[in-house]
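seq as requested:
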Amino acid sequence: NSRGSSYLLKDSIPITEFSASGPFEGHDLLRRGFTSVKNELLPSHPLELSEKNFQLNQDKTNFATLRNIQGLHAPLKLQMEFRAVKQVQRLPFLHSSNIALDTLRGNDECIGFEDILNDPSQSEVMGEPHMMMEYKLGLL
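struct tokens:
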């Protein structure tokens, strides 16, 4: 009955941010940095893909185990709670700690790399609040 669990996990995969792309849209250097063809083709290290997908793979394993032990309702309830918690966010120019999501996953008592040295993707440079809100709302 793997079809049911794959259906449950399909909706839990985070979708990357889509933007309206046209024939004349260029690369946004301020938000995405410089492009490199080599980085787009190959990962810089063999474990990079594994590390990027670690949380997703761990969630899939936990949902499959939970379904085998407690039935279909347990992973469904947990996924609904994950979605509800992910919808609560701060304004785009403020850093969010996502403490409720960490609590649901059981990571609230774990000290990791991002707790000490912070996540490299989360820089301390704050952008212009009005421009970031207009971008999020699709006005820019």
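Residues 17 and 99 are 22 Å apart (CA to CA).
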